[in-house]
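quick one, three chains, predict together pls
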Amino acid sequence: MIKVEKRLETPKYLLVLTPILSVLVAILFSSILLLVTGEDAIKALDTIFGGSLINWQEVLVNSITLVILSIGVAVAFKMVIWNIGAAGQMMIGMICAAGVALFVPIALKDSIFLIPLMALAAVIGGGLWALISGGAKAIWNVNEVITSLLLNYVALYLLQFLVFGPWKGVTTSGFPQSDPFPAAAKIATIFPTGRLHYGLFVAIAVVIIFYFLLNKSRWGYEIRVIGEGRNVARYGGMSLAKNIIVAMFVSGGLAGLAGAIHVSALEGRLSPHMNTDIGYTAIIVVWLSRLHPLVIGVVSVFMGALLFAETNLPAAGIPYEIAKLLQGSILFFVIAGDFFSRYKVKFVKE
Amino acid sequence: MSNAVVEMKGIRKVFPGDVVANDKVDLTIEPGEIHALLGENGAGKSTLMNILTGLYKQDGGELFVNGEKIEGKYGPKEAIEMGIGMVHQNFRLVKPFTVSENMALGTKGKFLYDSKDIEKKIEEISKKFQLQISPKAKIWQLSIGEQQRVEIIKMLYRGAEILIMDEPTAVLTPQEVKGLFDILRSMTKKGISIIFITHKMHEVLSYADRITVLRGGVALKTISAKDTNDRELADLMVGRQLDAKRMITDEVPLGDVVLRLDKVNARNDKGLLALDDVSFEIKGGEILGIAGVAGNGQKELSEVITGLRKVTKGNIFFKNEDITKECVQDIIDRNVAFIPEDRHGMGLANNLPATDNAILKSYRNKKFGSFLLQKKAINEATQKMVDDFDIKIPNIHCNVKLMSGGNLQKLILARETFENPELIIAVYPVRGLDVGAIDYVHQRLAEERKKGKAVLLISEDLEEIYKMTDRVAVLYEGKIMGIVNTDTTDINDLGLMMSGAKRSEA
Amino acid sequence: MSGLNIFQDLLVSAVAMGTPILFAALGEIITEKSGVQNLGIEGMMYIGAITAFLTGLALTAAGLPVLIAMILVVLLSAIAGAMIASLHAYVCLSLRANQIVSGLALAILGTGLSYYIGTVFITDPTAIISEKFTRFSFADGVTIPFVGEILRGFLNQDLLVYFSYVAVIVVWFFIYKTQKGLNLRAIGENPGAADAVGVNVKLSRYIYVMIGGAFAGIGGASLIISAASVGQWGQGMIAGRGWIAIALVIFARWNPKLVIWGAYLFGIAMALESRAQIYGWFDNIFILKMIPYIVTILVLLITFIFSKQKDIGEPESLAKPYDREER
């Protein structure tokens, strides 16, 4: 007979081991699925992981966005506020940053303050967008999962509305995108070849800053306690509503920042190209990392490789959807695998 | 003993973390008797009964019902089929359902839910056992006593012949208790056997036929109620002489009024009036007890004082300053200590380390850092609490969920008294603790009194009230029924007041 | 066209557009009434849609009579939905994982899996199921103005829509009038009480999670094979309907009878997208596309703002794992 017992304390090694094993099982599962459906699994894995090594700059480019989004998601998740709207908040960030870059007064067009200004607008925009869900949650306890998710669609159509309509460029020969930003609005690349840009350092800074904020600061302490339970937080004199609002603003603000970096460094204009599933990917990163900022930094690189593979797989003749499927199965196997870190499974004789 | 309805032999049950709840327990129940399981909290009474009702599976030992050995699959379903029904301390009733719907729950072999049919059966049972209830009433509309009646009817409806009552009197007033046992006694005459779990000796002696005493998960002895007395039972139960002596005997000069409530009104979570013109005051150097059956406004009372609940009318004064409208944080800053009823959900964050829990009230204090928290200062403070209160914990970075109930309460006590508070609000501070821990908590509270602090002690245990308080106020349906000096009051008077009689009538 | 005709046309369209969400929300009501929250509806609807598309192509190509083929398609999509839902049941009920995260995982996995299956198995990307359910009307004879238009709005539909009417009544009847329904509500309110009288909480929850998945599967299928649909598979086609369904459950206070109105309200919002352009009311497609989502968010806000605190009709034990020996 199998007997399941709750662990009082999870050994440290299991906390690390279960996610890694779960990822491996997910990869195995996806490979089998590839084989069953007559695809070349070896080639697929080689494209995903081998290809990522060769194109490490592209992987890191994806990771930059992902890291910032994920830290934002983690801030909300830490206090058990389910912000599923990172993608939408990122798009609003893109729009705000683009708005600054496109309509800034001539005097600022070449200013070194242009990028910081774009970032600021994006943070405020993304933050306020997230506050629609956050405020409704804080004041009326409205389910934030649904509102934040549905706002993704509203943001997406807003973005499309702008690039197909009022913000459509005059120099874009009919394509639905804005005019290019002024040169000062573009984040430079680090190397002469490749797209890896200085946003990398922003991402690293975000990881370090939020490591200290979440794990060492008084604010992080409040978030930790609130995440543990609403009553204990109230008992300790913490304001739930205030903390939800702040956390949601920060969460959305970071997503907005990711959006600003995205348009500034990669697009150089506002275009409707947007991986609307990236909010989901960020959630997977956060859960794999057990909400730890430093681990999020590492896991984002791994997931960045999967995101890159989505664009790289078709060239190898393999459906890119396998990368999406792999992401979904990773999350599933991780939460399933968590069972073994929370429970002890014993085999006992009846 | 072939006609015994229940026989349990050598029962053993171990919970995760190698907590032995039962070991080598033998128990025999005769037909038509009222059998008491007597023991302190954590003695293993409920666990034993949960095994009998199939809710838990024993790790060792044998179980016989009506002479038949229980083997193979045995869950609540099978237990009911064998005629065993249990009325749990927290009732297993679906609150938004009607009485009939609760009866029908789990009925097999029926497609439609037929309320008419069930109402008829309820009526039959009501008549046979003199248990009055309205089948159409929704559970949440019923009083606790009525809900208990629904539970009993539910068990009879399901054909229970062996009825287990888990701490049935904990939620009742002394007068209701008598009524309950009258009903139970008449039920035994109609062939029902009754097991009731309790830690109250006088109930056992007045109402039980036989008594089995449990201590530390082991059944010590089964005796006939006629052949024993409270002295022997107390010895068996706690393993030492129980002293019902007053603990706070030294004279402490009374200080200024620390807390004063003036006609305070408040609503409960459902929006109903929970406190109705409550007025009292506490001076420095005294312990004021709030007696009463739980659910009569105690929780709300503690919450309005600590700022967790809004006052709808009336005023609260702390050292002559009006704090009625202040929030939790303001009250914390006024150095008011609060030992809440709910240790796990409110007093402590289970999955956080002792250090995090130790600063829950003082994390805004500059000494623990202004922006980044000062790890060293926090560790030192926590270590001091652990040392001063002799808290058993592997190290201060351990999650508190690993600690025992007594140690958890010590940690709360340590934290709450760390800043030398003027006022301590303690809600059921010893509930669920073992004897040693109870003693410790009481001594600490007595010490605070000696230091000239004001203490508000909310308790439903009259023994505790008698032992620990200078004065006692009785709370009934949100009203104060009277405030009396503890050492000159008869416990029976308190009992009457707890069931709603005014001081003058009592 | 006359005003009344436009009204009727809008209503027909709204009912047809609301039906997939109605199915999904009905299923979620059953699941949530049992105390399990499944946020993965979006993924389950995708699985239902891709199943319907592939089996629909195959079965119509095999020469089966259209009606039989379509009924089989509905059945198979329901089974597919139930199977993918069983993953959620397993992870939440047997492995005791967080239901919110598991639901999200199901949404992501279901979407990814359906995309992958679609890419691998659909050889002709322009393939369309041309023979699907067709409309037939019951109310042609009614000539009373306005009443006739309303009736024709509801009764000039295809078999799937009529099935959805029946499903609402059956689900309502099951939940509130049958013994099993009583047990179902009890395990969502107080699983301990149900367990104590011998209701198998875990097994019941498994079943109701899978029934919820079956309904979501049918909801997804109806986007492929209903008379109102194009009959074509496309990535992104569910477009948040699964999430809207979850919002509708809250709006309807977990009551199958109320969920109808929410579904058609959303249906109107969706129908506006095409009708506003056809009738020349408004022609910015992006703004029109936003409307259903904004309507849903507003409806949700209103539901929460105007309900007394804590009393929105949510099952007491929703999303709380039940473990008998938990102490």
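The longest helix of chain B spans residues 174-189.
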